[in-house]
Amino acid sequence: FLQQQRFVSDASHELRTPLTVILGYSDMLSRWGREDRNTLDEGITAIRSEAENMQQLIEKLLFLARADQKRQAVNKEEVDFAALLADTMEKMQTVTTSHEVALGTNDPALVNGDPVLLRQLLRVFLENSLKYTPEGGHIRVSSVGTADGSRVMVTIADDGIGIAPEHQPRIFDRFYRVDSSRTKETGGSGLGLSIARWIAERHDIRISL
After folding, report:
1. Nearest CA to 51 among 16, 27, 20, 18?
2. C-alpha to C-alpha distance for 184 and 85, rounded to whole angstroms
3. CB–CB of 44/59 below 8 Å?
4. Full 3-state SS string of the chain
5. Do residues 126 and 154 lie in contact, with contact meaning Cβ atoms separated by under 8 Å?
6. What pLDDT shows up at residue 162?
7. What is the pLDDT along the chain (209 residues), one digit of tens a residue?
8. 152 Cβ partners below 8 Å, 6+ apart?
9. Which pLDDT score is estimated for 90?
10. 82 and 142 Cβ atoms separated by less than 8 Å
11. For residues 12 and 15, what is the distance between their CA atoms, to the nearest angstrom?
């Protein structure tokens, strides 16, 4: 119950900031935007950016709310994981120009899981690697099967700033941030890893950091 209270409080706080920015720019536009083209462009850009941030946050909040109420669907089927990983990486390479993104070993693997959620799980970690690795950095991914074929280990590694040991136990907590100022620079809601943990638990996936 206390966790839920904190969750609602944190969510309200997270939504308050972009709303304040949107209201501020709306007020500025109503006063000076009609006459000043630069003010108009700045206001429209800022409002759109904050609205997109809110949309992403709300989608994650709804995912976790459905998960808490046991209403988040998990549709498992036999998945060609090697093909799913290759496709996910190919799409990321297409849209990423600031980093070198490479897929190494990708062993054949059939898994029982929800392909949509598995793809979402991968993207959470890949997007974090992008956010916290300086431009020009490297992101390496591999997928290696065990000798008996019973499990597959996916490794995502980057040469970014890393996470100090004292913070590592808490990074899957909702809204937890290692450094709030750093989050402002990179974006993000502090919910992605919570969603990743939920997906992992529903698929008998163990996450190690």
Report:
1. 18
2. 30
3. no
4. CHHHHHHHHHHHHHHHHHHHHHHHHHHHHHHHHCCCHHHHHHHHHHHHHHHHHHHHHHHHHHHHHHHHCCCCCCCCEEEEHHHHHHHHHHHHHHHCCCCEEEEEEECCCEEEECHHHHHHHHHHHHHHHHHCCCCCCEEEEEEEECCCCCCEEEEEEECCCCCCCCCHHHCCCCCCCCCHHHHHHHCCCCCHHHHHHHHHHHCCCCCCC
5. no
6. 86
7. 777 777 777 777 778 888 888 999 998 888 887 788 888 888 899 899 888 888 888 888 888 888 888 888 899 999 999 999 999 999 989 888 899 999 999 999 999 999 999 999 999 999 889 988 999 999 999 999 988 878 999 999 999 888 888 888 888 887 777 765 455 455 566 788 888 999 999 999 999 98
8. 81, 107, 109, 111, 143, 144, 145, 146
9. 93
10. no
11. 5
Paired tokens of 81: 């994981």
